[in-house]
Each structure stands twice: as structure tokens, then as C-alpha cells.
Request: fold
Amino acid sequence: MAGSHVSADLWISEYITPWDMYVHGITKVLAYKKTAYQEMYIVETGAYGKGLVLDGKWQSCTGDEFIYHESLVQPVMITHPNPRHVLVLGGGEGATVREILRWKTVERVMMVDIDGEVVDACRQHLPEMHQNAFDDPRTQLVIGDALEVLDNMEQQWDIIISDLSDPIEEGPSYKLFTKEFFEKVQRVLTPDGFLVLQAGPVGPVSVKAHGRLVHTLNTVFPNVHSYCCYTPTYGEPWGFVIASLQAIDTQPLPATVDQRLQENTTGGLRLIDGVGLLGVLQTPVYIRQAIASATQVYTLNEPPKFFGKGTLGQSSQS
Reply:
């Protein structure tokens, strides 16, 4: 590579499209496990710190995870007038729970993850992400299938956060992006509650799946809003969706948001403040067009399948 010095001999190559890959140079493999549900790596990268990789797909890393996790958690926490009880589906690294626990109003967080081996590895190797969130007395960790947990759940929640891995066919989560799943979620939301989910890539070549996912949510919830934020290690902008029976304020006043954060959180945010939230919530035209043109509803019979899987391999360069 002319004019460049390549420092890594080991690479994780993630397929973004059939013609494109995003490659991260790995300096050390901290943990590897083929669990009952997925293949897991925890690695040290040359540029972005420690990272979690599931089924070859990059989940998050210490260098820029705050962008993803604040984008996922903070808009909906700010939108709800008094978030006290929060349910997290997925979120093995613990960073989603960490963001929730910034809020002084929160009394209980239940995190449901299907793969206890991944959670244990993250607790051991990624303390920078969870920051002891699992040990907070407000946190309850449940290892189990989110569909089964929801079926047997009686409590209602102010906020439900879906922080699941992408629905690739070989993975454990593709059923959790369907109309039937969202109906289960709505049943355990309070009447003024909010659902937010990570909703896949929204680059111009991959936005159709996001549009269909939003269209699916529109069949269950009267108020649905798509937004996105660029996370460097994903290689493209990433989509999120808020859904509710209540109206969603997509143009909050920055000064009001700043005051709310000052009064109700312990601080420490690096992405979201009043101005940052207002910017994140403004959905680009091409994404709105993709949502408007979507006709397919994802169901258990026809679930979504996001493109992409990755590999870990040696560099051909010496």
C-alpha cells in the first residue's frame, strides 16, 4: 500500500454489501467462544481499542461505542417524562445498561440476553464498556430467550430498548424484528411507554431493510420515528427507531433538554446534549423516502435477513 504503513497481521473483514468490506486490524484476540447461539470474538484493535464481534459482525468497541449507545438510549430516556422501569433486550456488553443508569429517576433495569457466555466474557474483558453496571443494585440480569420472557411477563415497562444483534439467518435474533415480536413488546409497555431499537444500517445501498422495519413497526404503533447516527467502526450510518402510543417530540428545544439532563442525570455524556439530540433526530430525506416506499411487513413467516457476515484471517503482507 503506497505511502502507508500497515501494522496488523490479523484482520476482521466484515461484508457490508456483496461488493464491499470493512476491515479492522487486530492486535490481539482476548477471547473466543463458539457458544450454543453464535460465534464470539473479543479482540484488541490497533485503532479503536477493544471490540466485540458476533458471527463475524462488529458489535461495538471501546473507541467509539459511546456514539452508538448514547444514540440508542438517550433520545428515548429524554423523551419519556419520568423513566423509572426499563427493560433491555440484548445488550451483552452492558454499555446500554450503563447509559440507562445515568438517570437518577431509574429504579429498575432488567436486561434479558440469550447468551450467558457472551455476557460473562464481556463482564471479564470489557469493563470499559459496562463500568460495573451489572453490579448496580438496580440491575437485574436474566439469561433467556426474549420471546419466552415477554410471553411470561406481567410487569409493564416505561421504556423497552432492543439492543439485539443483526438478524442474520444463522444468528439468534432474526425473530425479534417481526410484527409478532413488536406486538409482544407493546403488551408490556405502559400506556405512555416507548420502545427503541437498533434498526440496522441506513447507508444508501442498505436502507431498504430499515424502511421495511419501520413499516412493520407502523402496523403496531401509531407513532414511529426513524433516526440515525454515523458510527465509524460500522463503516456506514446506523439506524434507530422509536415507537410509542404517545406522540414523539422530534424537535425538542435544546435548552430544555440541557436542563433536563442537568437535573436528572449524573452527567458524562459525550454525544448527546440539547443540540446533539436535535441533530440526531432529523431524518435524512433518502431514509424518509425508503420508509414511505416500503410495503413488506416482517413476520415470523417472512422475517428480515440483514446482509453480511465477517471473517477473521491473517494478512497476506509480511
About this structure: The first strand starts at residue 10 and ends at 17. The two ends are 12 Å apart (CA to CA). Residues 65-79 form the longest helix (15 residues).
